[in-house]
Amino acid sequence: MAEQAQFEELARQLSAVGAVKRDLGRILPPECPTGSAAVLTLLGRHGSMRMSKLAELLAVDMSVTSRHVAHVAERGWIERSSDPADKRSRILHLTPAGETTLVELSRRSTELLAERLGDWSDEEVDQLIRLMTRLRESFGDCRAPHPRPAAVGTAPTPGTPKATAEATDKVTVTSAARAPTPVLEPTSTTTTRTPA
User: Fold this and answer.
1) Predicted pLDDT at 63
2) 22-46 as b/e: b if 16+ CB within 10 A
3) Cα–Cα distance, 55 to 58 (Å, whole number)
4) Nearest-5° angle of CA 144, CA 51, CA 181?
5) Three-point CA angle 118, 124, 129, nearest 5°
6) What pTM, to 2 d.p., does this model score?
7) What is the distance between the alpha carbons of residues 196 and 110, in angstroms, rounded to a whole number?
8) How far is Cα 27 from Cα 33, in angstroms, rounded to an integer?
9) What DSSP designation does 92 have?
10) pLDDT at 116
């Protein structure tokens, strides 16, 4: 078991990861802010889905999700179609233009990482991937809401949020092209390093 001082240092190092994410955000095209990139990334990874499922994966409310979706739809990167199972719902799909944009986002992210980690060995990059994957697995799904623990000797906070209907919303998946994933959204457990 690691010592307290190690966990304190780890917490300091993890707080610095924000600088990496900010740098990755700076390389995005002006017409594709971080929220839009996240929408494209999730649709590229998970396939077509309802807006409520997208909001759940983004871990933001529906109003914020709607703004991101409107932005990418205006640019022709996604299309919204009626859900055959529920005419009140819409299914979001990547368009060919959206897939092309997603490939470009991935190219930019990969180039930045290759530049910044150019003096790292393949073994060091592989070790980082393994350790970050394990860290994510230790935390589980960080996007799911977790109730705050009550202080010792206190009653649970009234009005603790319950699981919403959106959390159980059915995802309609179609065969979507699986473009490489930009780094702005949490990556899956398998990652391939592109040679510089």
Assistant:
1) 93
2) eebeeebeeebebbbbbbbbbbbbe
3) 5
4) 70
5) 100
6) 0.67
7) 9
8) 10
9) E
10) 95
